[in-house]
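Form 12-C: Joint structure prediction
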Amino acid sequence: MAPLLQVEDLKTYFHLRDGVVKAVDGITFHVDKGETVGIVGESGSGKSITSLSIMRLVPEPGRIVHGRILFGADGQPKDVVKMTDEEIRDFRGSDVSMIFQDPMTSLNPVLKVGFQVREAMSAHDRFSDEQSKARVVPLLKKVRIPGAADRTKAYPHQFSGGMRQRVMIAMGLSNEPSLLIADEPTTALDVTVQAQILELLRDLNREMGTAIILITHNLAVVASLCTRVVVMYAGRIVEEGYTRDIFKNPQHPYTWSLLRSMPRLDAARHSKLLTISGLPPDMSNPPPGCKFHPRCRFRVDRCLEEEPPLGEVGPNQYARCWVLMQNALVTQPEKAAAAEVPIPPLSAEPAQIDQRPDPDRPGAVKA
Amino acid sequence: MTLEASPEVESRVVDKQLALVSVEDVTKHFPIGAGLLGGGSAVRAVDGVSFEVRAGETLGLVGESGCGKSTLGRVIAQLHPATSGKVIFQGQDLVPMRGEKLRRMRQELQMIFQDPYASLNPRMTVGEIIGEPLKNFGLARGKERSNRVHEVMRTCGLNPNFLNRYPHEFSGGQRQRIGIARALVLNPTFIVADEPISALDVSIQAQIVNLMEDLQNRFKLTYLFIAHDLSVVRHLSDRVAVMYLGKIMEIADSHSIYENPLHPYTKALLSSIPIPDPDLEAKRQPILLQGEIPSPVNPPSGCRFHTRCPIAQFPICSEQVPPLESKVDGHLAACHFAGQL
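Section 2 - Result
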């Protein structure tokens, strides 16, 4: 079966006065029908630009300079990159829709909520005006807004953050798209509300078969919702695979380190956190070779010069690394062990907190 | 006082049973809509809170946005005057203290802020920012001051060669280190850290968490660590206090809060947090609370949590405010039916 969405060698660059920022640099991934895929990365990794590229909403001066974004599982996929303005308007909202981190800035403050949900449908041709009108209340019920019929007459400011995000989801689903892109949908919300929204997304995925791309920096949220995960770093995919494999057996040192740098609710105190030294690279001047090498504790000489390809490391698991964790744990066991108990007690020389100098970082000790 | 961090601080005796800070029935109300003739109402951000922070410990203060945890932190650090109640620090009540006397107390009591972008003056160099407290308190001048600033910068993992740079030249994590260095330069005993890592990238957070732990061990610091991220709080804290709508719902040592929460709110909060492990996630059964946190202008009667509580019984929960009392072994909870969810 053809995938619902196939992104092929996508490159989205920002042409600035002092150079080109390669925000997304040659990424390839797919989303199957009804699947939930997480795209994880830190700020600047390119995860949001990836989602905006799929919607063709890349802000100026960014441009998709290369690649294809094929959409449609019916054997005749269309390339989003080549769509005309009219086609793209039809595509957005009815085939794919997107919800954002901050629901307040995405809703119009002077229009009633019910009107905004209806407008999302009347902007497209799937439903007649009559049908659109009739669908508003059931949609709000579906996203579990209490007292949905009365709430259609309320304005966004009368809703709490979680309720606004539900309205956004209702609008996103109003035209029954086959793909929903959720960009940090729970980041601005409290944990109890986050749990409600994740539960809602999970149920909607199950009931309506809507595929979901979840963009987030939070690995725990991915573990909770997604069956597959794409890890991005500095505009590239560094690891991809089924969530279970990635979490149990990460092969890229970045994924491996990230999982060990987060405190976990189920871990007792004083299992020391692993620190990833340094900073994500400045994307206008990325390092040569592997983009992660300045921060990688397992790097070898080759990493400094030559960028590794995204290679298959197991069934349906891919990683972009010359070393790979399965080898690093054997050949560099002392570094892996040091990572489990990092940071020796502070001695007389306290400048050891960042272990490795990073030449791009202002606070770094120059080697 | 000597400026080398060592002898005085090394000999600092830390008795973990001793209260360094006692908060007694503190309230903080922000009036709203009051006219000339009074009237109007108030946001009851902190509404009758008592607890203590023991010497040398990290007390984690957690809660959802709007629960009053940041306001409480600022009231303790005397950045907001309390509406009523006492904040006893080293045997003296800070609340009625004013002027020079209070200023002197601040030497011992410092704060680290959430936003490393907003909390540093963009027109001052890093050296000036970190050295300013020394200048204000007349503790060191000239060479002595710059030596101390160098030392603190190294301690916090900053390169002293960048003394003359401005905050905008640093990344978020580095700026947070500057904020920590500024708090540390006076050799305080007590630091209120208000969400110090939540504005940072995931891979940077661990650097700051580890730095704070190292500094605590080295300088025998006491922390009040305010955060909404319960995983980080578990990692850092000896004891944890859970706040909801201006009140403390539960307070106990970290292990018993996380392993055996007694208050239904704590239990729901903990069950809401996803764990980065797909197998455990598949098994996790979150207790989904209905609705969201009510307005602190007009909080619910009785137990403030009764409107969302899965085990509330009426009329007791909507009429009687449950006292924060010891249920087992110094594990305090404010619930009529503690431990029954």
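Section 3 - Comments
Chain B touches chain A through 61 residues (CB under 8 Å). Chain B has twelve helices and twelve strands.
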